[in-house]
Amino acid sequence: MDRPVGVVGGGTMGLGVAQSLATAGHPVVVLDPADQVRATGSDRLRDGLRLAKLLGRFSGDHAEVLSSVRWTAVEKDLDDVQFVVECGPERIPLKQELFRMLDAVCPPDAVLASCTSAIPIGLLAACTGRPELVLGMHFMNPAPLKPVVEVARTEQTGADTLRRADELLAGMGKRGIVVRDAPGFVSNRVLMSTINDAATVVQEGTADPATVDKVFEDCFGHRMGPLRTADLIGLDTILDTLHVLLETTGDDRFTPCELLVGMVREGRLGKKSGGGFFR
């Protein structure tokens, strides 16, 4: 049997990455400390497979995929992985601690990737003794349905590490677009300021959320406007990412607007909570 692939974090993104890996034939170990996340993992994965089947994206055996994913709270269970995708919360100290743990637990040849939305990969690689084996793999949500992944390389990321990442993605039916390491990379350096500005437009009464998105969809031809995109990502994730960008760039345009902060405080997180800018 192939060495397993590890996924750290079993939330929305971690689950999607685990599903993508398992349907590609990889044994997967999902590490998450939360009892509820682990207890509901198989059911959430089953729901994801049903959706993928309805959309014509999966035709394999559900039971086989479900049995290939192991849920654990034991860090040592990652001691034989070939590759890890870290999908923890978007907080710099937490991710740095996770990378210290991964460096200590995982085999010395294992690639350590982060699915961070904005944290510079160099800050995480510096917490390990293997910076040449560290890179960013920014999957988009929902991961099983998105064919492209933003891959961030540092100055120290090795060519063989990029090759292994490319092979892993290709096996999942995905392709990577490689960019240099920087806060927010390309996608979220641009997208987060757009979402923040779109929320500010609503806050100031210039237009309601539907109208804001209609301008982007009808005038610019975007498939989805910035506020529906924000709801899909999760407004709590948007807020965390804006804080990271503000801290790492010092650019005030990433200061979250009051409306966005208030919505997260009220638990209006978007699709995951049943309502955000839209219901």
From TrEMBL:
- What Gene3D superfamilies does UniProt report for this protein, alphabetically? N-(1-d-carboxylethyl)-l-norvaline Dehydrogenase, domain 2 (1.10.1040.10), NAD(P)-binding Rossmann-like Domain (3.40.50.720)
Task: Note whether NAD occurs among the keywords.
Answer: yes
Give start and end of each 3-hydroxyacyl-CoA dehydrogenase C-terminal domain.
Answer: 184-278
Where along this sequence does the record place binding of NAD(+)?
Answer: G9, G10, G11, T12, M13, G14, D32, E90, K95, S117, N141, K272
Example of a GO biological process term: fatty acid metabolic process
Keywords carried by this UniProt record = NAD, Oxidoreductase
Metabolic or biological pathway, per its Swiss-Prot or TrEMBL entry: Lipid metabolism; butanoate metabolism
Which residues are the signal sequence here? Answer: none
State a single Gene Ontology molecular function.
Answer: NAD+ binding
| Boundaries of every 3-hydroxyacyl-CoA dehydrogenase NAD binding domain copy | 5-181
In short, the EC number is: 1.1.1.157
Q: Where on the tree of life does the source sit, at the highest rank? A: Bacteria
The residues annotated as site (Important for catalytic activity) are H138
Report the family membership: Belongs to the 3-hydroxyacyl-CoA dehydrogenase family.
What name is this protein filed under? Answer: 3-hydroxybutyryl-CoA dehydrogenase
User: Per the UniProt entry, what species is this protein from, by scientific name?
Assistant: Kutzneria kofuensis
